[in-house]
Amino acid sequence: MDFDQHQHYSPHIPASSTVSNVMLKVVLALVPGIITYIAFFGWGVLVNIIIAGIAALGSEAVAVALRRQPVAPTLMDGSALVTAILLALALPPHSAWWLIVVGTTFAIIIAKQLYGGLGYNPFNPAMAGYVVVLISFPLEMTRWNPPLSLADAPMSLLESFQYSLTGILPERLDLDMISLATPLDVMRTQLDLGNSLDTITTGNGIFGIVAGTGSEWVSLAFLAGGLWLLFERIIDWRIPASLLASLLLLSGLFSLIDSSNFASPAFHLFAGATMLGAFFIATDPVSASTTPVGRLIFGAGCGILIYVIRTWGGYPDGIAFSVLLMNMAAPLIDYYTQPRVIGQQKNRS
After folding, report:
1. Residues 206, 213: contact at Cβ < 8 Å?
2. Distance between CA atoms of residues 253 and 117, nearest Å
3. Banded pLDDT at 203 (limits 50, 70, 90)
4. Contacts (Cβ under 8 Å, ≥6 apart) of 325
């Protein structure tokens, strides 16, 4: 989520808001989800955030200095920190430090500063960094933490730092104890093998009430934070509403046609990064559509692509790819959805 420092205010942000104040509110809105994430999956996500934050601020400082611009004001606007947090949340907890640094550095230097800095990036920087490491290091990107309720021996904060920085696990643990496929990945793989939904979910502790154990509560926490951003008028309602509505309708339609092979709408809404993507990623006012109708189209496109990628694509979630693909379409969407200027007559020719 980035904001144009030259315009100072995005169209849907009150004029009294500054970039730094907006970014602070975004961080505050993420806090409930981060706390819930830690409570259900351990300290790894916090380690991710710390490493990504350091890498983001360092990369931003170097890039801005090379462009001979003031470093302190750029770092203080908070946009690099928000990018770091979003990327850290998208990565598997306990990711290796170098993986986090590679993704974060690409997000800041290539996806953001190379295009001119804050307000000029055509793609969401956090998702660009995520896709780079996902494609480059697919094995490392599959090592997700099991919920603490399923873990044999959760790592402490100090052990989490040690593992991320050195790759050395405590003697009482091995890699199989701290790695587990996500509910989306399990669901997709087992359906491809011909198993029914009932067979997949029955007796499998990775699945919770409607989605994944723990992940559904993390999603609810991000939903609460996103609703607060709507209340504060930091983001516009159109993108998250149309994203969630299109995902709900499409998943509901296929589930209604064949409930044994297509997951329920509740599963798609609360599994993976749906809520994080709807309220904190797709709503980036720089890389998303900016017109009222354009935002509805943009959000709906994201929701449709998320379902298509999850169901028939090569990746289990699809948030990052859907947002980046719609980022490419945003200028065209805005071009054809510009509202008519007040007082301008329609062309009757």
Report:
1. yes
2. 42
3. confident
4. 301, 305
Residue type at position 251 = S
- Please give the C-alpha separations between residue 277 and each of 270, 280, 281, 283, in angstroms, as whole numbers: 11, 6, 5, 8
Which residue matches tokens 């989306």? 184
- Greatest Cα-to-Cα distance within the chain, rounded to the nearest angstrom: 78
64 within 8 A of 117, measured Cβ to Cβ? yes
Pair of tokens at residue 113:
């500063």
Cα–Cα distance, 273 to 281 (Å, whole number): 10
Rounded to the nearest 10 degrees, what angle do helices 125-136 and 97-105 cross at?
Answer: 130
At 24-60, the pLDDT tens digits run 999 999 999 999 999 999 999 999 999 999 999 999 9
Residue with tokens 């643990």: 173
Q: What does 4-46 look like in DSSP terms, one character per residue? A: -TTT-S-TTS-TT--HHHHHHHHHHHHHHHHHHHHHHH-THHH
- Measured distance CA(319)–CA(328) in Å, rounded: 15
Task: Name the residue type at position 140.
Answer: E
